[in-house]
Every structure is written in C-alpha cells, then in structure tokens.
Amino acid sequence: MNISQLQIGLFIPCYIDQFYPQVGIATLELLQKLGLDVHYPPEQTCCGQPMANSGSEKEAIPTYKNFIRNFSPFDYVVSPSGSCVYHVREYYNILEQTDEVKKVRKNTFELCEFIVDILKMDDLKIEYPHKVGIHQSCHGLRGLKLGTSSELVAERSSKVHRLLEKAKGIEIIGLDREDECCGFGGTFSVFQPDVSVGMGKDRLNDHLRNGAEIITATDMSCLMHLEGIARRKKQNIKAVHIAEILNSNRL
Amino acid sequence: MDRDKILQAIRENKAKTTPLPKFFGSLAEKQDTGLINRFKDILQQVGGDCFEINGAEELNSFMEEHFPGATDFRKKETWKEFPPDCPKEKLAQLKTVVLGGQFGVAENGAVWLDETRFPNRLVPFIAEELVVCLNAKEIVCDMHEAYSKSGKNTTGFGVFISGPSKTADIEQNLVFGAHGAKKIVIVLY
Amino acid sequence: MTGHAHKAGQFLKNSERAAWHDETLWIVRRKRDKMARAVPEWESLREQASQIKQHTLSELDNYLVQFDGQAQKNGAQVHWAGDAARFNEIVSGIIKKNNATKVVKSKSMLTEECGLNPFLEKQGIEVTDTDLGERIIQFRKEPPSHIVMPAIHLKKEEIGELFHEKLHTEEGNFDPTYLTAAARLHLRQKFLEAEVAITGVNFAVAETGAVVVCTNEGNADMGVHAAPVQIHCVGIEKMIPRMDDLGVFIRLLARSATGQPITTYTSHYMGPKPGGQMHIVIVDNGRSEHLGKENYRNALKCIRCGACMNTCPVYRRSGGHSYGSVIPGPIGSILAPHSHIKNYNDLPFASSLCGSCSDVCPVKIDIHDQLYRWRQDLSEKKRVSPGKRHTMKMAGKILAGSKMYDFSGKMARWGIKNLPRKLVYNRLNVWGKERELPEVPKESFKQWYKRTRQGKGGENGQG
C-alpha cells in the first residue's frame, strides 16, 4: 500500500477545536510526518455524540449528515478521539445506509488504531522520559477494542501501550484499577455532577498514588474532566493527549 | 385463564426462532489427570475438609476412629430410626451425619446427593456437620460432565453441595454455618 | 437534579462511607475476575449461555408448556399469574387453603417486584425472610440495595445494634460470627415452625420440570424441606430447555455473582416430599410484553447475578437505594422503565455508558446499548425535562453547520476568557463546582489552520 497516495480526512472533535487546538495540531503534524496526505475539511463541526448520548439522536441527524458530507471524499478519516470514532462507526446506523455512509463508517479511525492497524507501525521513534499513566478511555477501549478490557478473559493487548512502550525513557506506571471509567460521560458530567466528580477524583488518585506525572488518553474529553479536577485541587499532574506524546519528537 | 393469555401474548411477541446451540464440549478429554488433587484444592478453598484413605476396606475403621457417634445414613438401621415422617424436632438434634456421596466435581469441590442417600430431605441441611464418603474414581471434571451423570436423576430431589453453609452478608465477612452444616468433610476412598 | 442524581449526591456526602461501599463492591468484581480467568473457555461459555437464552425466549411458549406438563407429572401443582396482583392472590390463596399463618421465604426478587410481603402481612400472615441479608433489611423495614447482597450498604456495627434490639444479642458485640450464630438460632426456630416455605427460582428446566435454587446459606432448603407446603415463584423468562444446559449456567452464575466456583447448595426440586405439597407459580407481570420489544428483548436473558452492579462505577458510588427501583444498577436501569416509565425515566441517564456492565454480563446482555436506546425512546416520548429537550434542539441546530458552530465556539471561549471568574463560576455552572473549565487558547484549531495552511493548497483544505 502506497500510503502517500491515500487521501486522509482529519476530523477534529468540537471541544478539541475550541479548547485544545494543540491536540489537533499534533495529530496533523504526526500524520504528515508519517508520510500521509492530510486534508482538513473546513466545514466540519461535530460528530453529534453529545446530543445523541443525551437522547436527541434525531436532532443530531443534520450534524451526522454534515460529517458524512465533509468526509466522504476521503480514503480514511482519522481523529484524535476514540469516542467520536466509536459514535460514527456504531451509531450512524440510523442514517440511511447509502454507499457514502457505509464508506465513511467503515473507514473512520481513531489515531492509535490507524497507526497500528492500517499503517502497521508501533515504533514511532519517540523519546518521552516521563512517568506516564495511561487512562484507557472507555469508548476506545470497550467500543473500538483498542485494548482488552479487564472484564474479558482473553489474551491481553493494547494498541496505546504498544505505541508508548517503545518510547525512550518512558515509564508506564501500573494502576490499581486498570480501566475504570473517569466519569466524564458527556452530559453525564453535568447531569450527575457528584458521581462524575467522585469518579474523576478516584481516577486521578489512582494515577497519583502510583507515581504518574503525566496522564495520557485517546480522548481529550476524559482528560479535560480529569485535568479540570486536578487544577482545582492543585494536584501535581499534567494531562497530555496521546497525539501530543506520539508527535513529541522523532529520534 | 391466565395461562392461555400469557401463552398467547408470548406467541404474538416472541422473536423469530434462533437455534439451540449444540452441547458445550467438556474439557474432560483434556483434563483427566489431577482431578482428585483439583477437587481437594477447591474443596479446601471453599471451606471444606478432605481426607484420603486407601480403599473402601479402610473406610469403616476410619469412620469409627474419626467420627464416633455420628449418625450414619449409609446404614439401613439409621433409616429405620429416622423414617420419612420423622418429626422435625428429632432431626434438629442431628449433630454429625454420614452420607454416601454419588460423585464429585473437580472444578468446584461439590458432591452430588439425591434422595436415595437420606430418608428425609432435611438431613443434609439440618445437621451441624456433614461427612460425605466418596469414591475418588467418581470425581468428574466439570459441571457439564456432572449433569450428564445427574441429569437423568429421577428422584424428587437432588443437590450439589460444595463446602459448608456460609454467608458474607455482614460486611463481607465470611462466616460458616449460616443455616446448613457448619462443617463438611469429604472422605475419599 | 433528578431522582437518582440527587440521591447519589446525598450518598456521596459521607465520602468515607461512600469510598468503603465502592471498594467493597470493587473487591467482589475482582473476585469475579479471578474466578473467570481460571476458566479458559469463559468467553465461549458466555456465548453459549447467551444463545441458549435467546433460543429459549424465541420458543418460550413451547418450553413453558413442556415445563408445566413435566412439573405436574412430578406431582407439583402449577399455577399461572398474569400480573402481580394475581400472583399475590394465588400465593395467599395457597397459604390460606392450608390454614397457615407462618411463612418463611428465601431470596426472590420476583416477590419484591410483586410486593408479596406487605400483601401477606396485611392478611395477618407472618412472613420471615430467611436469607441473612434479607432478614437484616426486613428488620430495618427497607428494600434490598443489591439483588445478591441485600445488606451490602450496612456496616457490622449497624447490624450489631439491630440484632441487639431485635434478637437481644449483647450490646456492643459486632463480631460477624457471633451475630450470624444468633441469626442461625433465631431463624432455625422459624424454619421449624413454618407451615409454608416460599422460594424464588434461579432456573426452571422444561425437559424435566425441575426447579433449581442456588444458595450459600441453605435457607431455601431448610425452609422447603421442613415446611409441609412449598411454593416456588418463577418469572416466565427463567426457563431453560434441558438439564444439560444447567451445566453452562451453574458454571457462570456464582463466578459472576460473588467470585465463587459454585454456591454451597445447588438444589433441584423435582417433586413434593412424601405427604407434602409442591406449588409452582409462573409469573408474567409485563414480561410477555417486554418480549415484543426488539431493542430491549435481550434484557430478559438476565440470570440475576448482580455482576453488572459490582462493576458499575456509578452503582458503587451511589448505592442501590439511589435508583428507587426493585432492581438497581445497570440491569435495573433498563428493566425499570418498562414497568413504570414515569418513575424511572432518569435511570438510563444514571450512567457514563462505559460499557463495563456488558463485558461482565454472563449472558451477554447489551446493557450499555439498551441504556443508549432508552435515552432516545425517553426523549421521543418527551420523558426528559423540557429544559434538556430545548438545549438539545438548539445544539442540534448549532452543530449542523459550521457558521453557527464557529460563532458559538468563539462566543463561549470569549466568555470564559474575559468574563470575571465569579460570573463564570456561578451557581449555575455545574461543571465549575469542583472542576476548572479548560484554559482558553488564543485561537481554535480551525482558526490556526486557516491562518497557517489555507491558501497553500486547494479548496478542500489541503495543507
């Protein structure tokens, strides 16, 4: 497969666009470093998940259609967000399944799975001398099967771990609860604030207890929630999206 | 009639038939060694005790030595003493009871007992301590094998017993002897 | 805040106790993991169980008829109850016909669902729940907070005080062995005096008419074999085809529920004792209607193991009583709205949709999908708050096209950056109660891209 001939559509989730552009920039730069021809359709907005998860799937259909319209020209759609990608692959099933829709659903990938499964790479020659805790965002983990969830009795593997473990100087810390949810859950974070924050605090403490300096994940939404708590409590831990780590430098 | 209404509602609402999968293959072929050891290990883990003796000949002397005064339901005389219509209060006096187990299950330390083993169904539950004599050759690998043995049971009652009665309902503290036997001993011969 | 969210907030106020509750249930989840991993074919077992249940539900009428016939051949009397009221009538009818006033009952969520205890008590019938956890909550006059460990929300000190009051145990003695021994004596008396014993049913086998009950305590058996009359209550969905199928379910049940290889007692009731009566009451109470709902049908596969509760990060941090439903937790949240959509319309939202429940479910119910599906149906049926509906309509319009989206984003960022902190972190800012909002960047990704890349390539944003 000649990857330089692939047309890649870059989908930047709405909250990354608005609040964490550096994650989008890192994703774009990384994909280009890997030799890909990356396009950013400027009229993209959102995947529609926040509305759909709140029960307003029907109201989200125009947003779904906007996504399909923007991304149907591409061979692959890549995004630094497990939950958005999961939503497109699973829940765009309510759209009429035209060839266009089917193509987009099939070819939308989260960044890590795209690198490991499509580009067939797991050594990005990065140097990252830090103690890193990997937060395995739920939609990516259980939805996209980026890794083996702890509930399952199966051979254990994780695409995110694979991409990070070869980084020079990195120490990936072990957690007491391998893959418990951080508690963001979209609008859950405001409709069930006490449980949401309780879960977030517990997640952070697990990382802190085990010595993490950096928490990384495939989803900025989880990190936004965890970072929000950490900053309020003035805890000494930084949230860095996986795209930024993978793009950090090339040895 | 409720029965007809319910069945009618089900017929109208049920999904298209999906097939019943074929029998789950037992791992028995792959695991016929070490069954006795596995049985003993798990039995211990679930709070039961196990003694291994050399053959049926030694059984009676062993029982006399370790459980003198036990009410032995392997003997027909005992059945006469505790007939099926025996008052509950008399059964409630049972302390140590000896039963003949039919077979054991290695994956969970359970023994199978049906109505041919006791004259009254309360016996295995009301006694303070259970002693079950089991032929070690009659230990099967798992529940699939177990049900192929017990499934054709035609008596009105049968039970798998694994370890002593227990509860963890008080702050997850494990306590033996909630209502049934506080202790169970399997004597393998 | 709605029912569950509010109650969860209350639960979490005692943070130490909430942490204890969370850790206690997490330990049970870990026990399950350990047990499951010792069974290499675990995932195949789950698939088998799922298919057996799916098949059974697709032929449920035939299996029920087969079961009915076999059970009667065994000497049992079989009754059918269309709803809870009929069920209560049938059970109380059997009790009264036998001139009984003392009843013992082992665990049955079905009887909770139908409100059997209060119904019988109103008629002067004494019902003693004999599972230790259930007896504790019966004394306290509260519902179970977990379907397998009903008193999991209580500490031993509270139980010690309760037993001191009700059973006259020593004041200040909270030793679990001591307390359990006291309960054993007390309940043994009840077993010996009981005239009727009622049980739930874990599995009903069509092939043989057998009723299977799994307990650790032995309380179902003590009751059933001591009392002259035994009544087994079974929901229609508890049918399984053959005795051999039990092998699959018995291997999955206790491992999933409590992390044991099997419960202490797995009892197979096939016929009455000599001189005794055996009754089986088959109950519908909305199940046949549920069977017709394609998106939710799978929930009827449930074997009531409670594994979903143990793994649910929300359940562990809010407790079973926060749900207000007979069955709490993930499975409860997809079952309850069928019976009373108004009372339980917030339950499908009491979840972050993490999917852990679906992964532990021994019969592979797609719980997280059904939670998502319920949210859509509740919205459509206008069972979500008008405020929420309006917000979502607005969001739908804004996110459908880039012009509105870009503008709104710009406004939000300007607001967070420039408005005084007090205004931004006001009481309405639910996020901001315990979290900082994200720091506002100089420009959005889109703005950065336009500034640095646009014009260097074609219309479709080639950089």
What does this protein look like?
- The complex is a heterotrimer of chains A (251), B (189) and C (463).
- Chain A has 251 residues and is an alpha/beta fold.
- Chain A folds into two domains: 3-118, Rossmann fold, CATH 3.40.50; 131-246, Rossmann fold.
- In chain A, 47% of the residues lie in helices and 10% in strands.
- Chain A is built from 13 helices and eight strands.
- Chain A has helices at 14-19, 21-33, 49-53, 57-71, 82-91, 99-107, 111-118, 138-143, 159-165, 188-191, 193-209, 220-232, 242-246; strands at 7-10, 37-39, 76-79, 108-110, 131-134, 171-172, 214-216, 238-239.
- In chain A, the strands form two sheets. Chain A has a four-stranded parallel sheet with strand order 2-1-3-4, with helices on both faces. A four-stranded parallel sheet of chain A has the order 6-5-7-8, sandwiched between helices.
- In chain A, α12 links the parallel β7 and β8 (238-239).
- The longest helix of chain A is centred in the last third of the chain and has 17 residues, at 193-209.
- By secondary structure, chain B is of the alpha/beta class.
- Chain B has one domain (2-188): 3-Layer(aba) Sandwich (Rossmann fold), CATH 3.40.50.
- Helix content of chain B is 28%, strand content 22%.
- Chain B has helices at residues 2-13, 35-45, 59-66, 76-81, 88-91, 123-126, 143-150, and strands at residues 49-52, 71-72, 96-100, 103-105, 110-114, 129-134, 139-140, 157-161, 166-167, 175-176, 183-188.
- In chain B, the strands form three sheets. In chain B, strands 1-11-6-3-2 form a five-stranded parallel sheet, with helices on one face. A four-stranded mixed sheet of chain B has the order 7-4-5-8.
- By secondary structure, chain C is an alpha/beta fold.
- Among the domains of chain C are: 39-289, Rossmann fold (3-Layer(aba) Sandwich), CATH 3.40.50.10420; 405-452, no CATH class.
- In chain C, the strands form two sheets. A six-stranded parallel sheet of chain C has the order 1-10-7-4-2-3, sandwiched between helices. In chain C, strands 8-5-6-9 form a four-stranded mixed sheet.
- In chain C, a hairpin with a 4-residue loop joins β5 and β6.
- The longest helix of chain C has 23 residues, at 15-37.
- The radius of gyration of chain C is 26 Å and the shape is globular.
- The model of chain C is unreliable at 455-463 (pLDDT under 50).
- At the B-C interface, α1, α6, α7, β8 and β9 of B face α2, α3, α4, α8 and α10 of C.
- β8 of chain B pairs antiparallel with β9 of chain C, so a sheet runs across the interface.
